[in-house]
Amino acid sequence: HLRILGWTIIIVSAVVGLVGTCFKNCRSRVSYLQLTFWKRYMEKENERFDALSVEYANKLAERNLKSFFENNKPAPMPFPDHKAWEEISAYYTFSSREQYYSILQRYVETSDFPPERKPILECETATT
């Protein structure tokens, strides 16, 4: 009886997962290709975030260790404030109303940076 119960649970879980995936894809407001692009973008953004996080953590650790051992005041290091970390840590779901592929992109595109620090990623459409 336990084998039958086990196989029943496995089969029911697989069917529920399949139906849920199909339902989610059918009810999605974005196209399959756009959803595929979004997933790939998120993977790449996460990979780059991890790499840059390691790089910045190394620089910060190096700066702090040098400051400690050389008994100097540390050089200033640009770093996001707590509010920025809070904003990019929120959960994000793709929306066809906004042309952002992640919460990080939305933060960068809508933040009020000084002109010299404004990110350059504006896609202009050519009018002919």
Automatic annotation (TrEMBL):
It is a multi-pass membrane protein. InterPro entries: CALHM (IPR029569). One of its GO terms (biological process) is ATP export. It is found in: Membrane. GO terms for cellular component: plasma membrane. It comes from the Eukaryota. Keywords: Ion channel, Ion transport, Membrane, Transmembrane, Transmembrane helix, Transport. Its main location: membrane. The chain crosses the membrane at residues 6-23. It holds the Pfam family Ca_hom_mod. The keyword Hydrolase does not apply. Belongs to the CALHM family. This is Family with sequence similarity 26, member E. The lineage of its organism: Eukaryota, Metazoa, Chordata, Craniata, Vertebrata.
